[in-house]
Amino acid sequence: MTLILLAISLLTALCFLAFRFAIYALPFMVGLTVFRFVHATDAGFLLSALAAIGAGLLSIGIVIFLLGFAKNPAVRFLALAVFAVPAMVAGYALVHGVTHDAIHSTLALNLVCGAGGLVVGLAAMANLNALGTRVLTA
Fold it and tell me: Is-contact 113 84, C-beta < 8 A?
C-alpha cells in the first residue's frame, strides 16, 4: 500500500513539473535553436549555453515589452498567443504521452489531449500576463 501511494505521489509531482516546463515551451525552443546555431559555429559549450539563456530571456522580455507598451488589445493578444501556441503543442504532447495507453478510442484521446493542450496554453497566457503586470508595475 505504501508503495502505491509513493508511486501516485511521484506521478503527481512529475506531472506538475512537466506542466510547469510545458508553460515555457517558447523560450526553451528559442534557446535550443540559438544553442544549436552558436554551437555549430565552433563557439564552445559555455558560450553556446550563455547565448541560449540570453535568447530565452530575450524572448520573454520581448513579449513582456509588447504587453506593457501596446495599447491595442489585438496586439496584446497576439503577443500572448505567440507565447501560448508552443505551450499548447507541448501540453497536447504531454497529455498524449501520459494517456495514450489508457484511452483506446482515437476520438476520446484527441479530445482529452486537446483539452490538456488548451489548459496548458491558457495557463501559459495567464502566467505571462501576470508576470508582465508584476514587472511593469514594480
Answer: no
Closest to 70 in 3D by CA, of 60, 79, 82: 79
**Is 11 among the domain residues?**
no
Position 33, amino acid: T
DSSP letter for each residue of 61-86 = HHHHHHHHH---HHHHHHHHHHHHHH
Asked if residue 7 belongs to a domain, the reply is no
Q: What pLDDT is stored for residue 45 in this prediction?
A: 94
Structural domain tally of the chain? 1
Cell numbers describing residue 62: 520581448
Distance CA 92, CA 86 (A): 10
Q: What is the mean pLDDT of residues 6-12?
A: 86
Residue 10 within a domain:
no
Looking at the domain assignment, is residue 41 inside a domain?
Answer: yes
One-letter identity of residue 103? I
| pTM of the predicted structure, to 2 decimals | 0.78
| Identity of the residue numbered 118 | L
Total residues found in the chain within this entry: 138
pLDDT tens for each residue of 33-54: 999 999 999 999 999 999 999 9
Q: Which residue has the higher pLDDT, 133 or 117?
A: 117
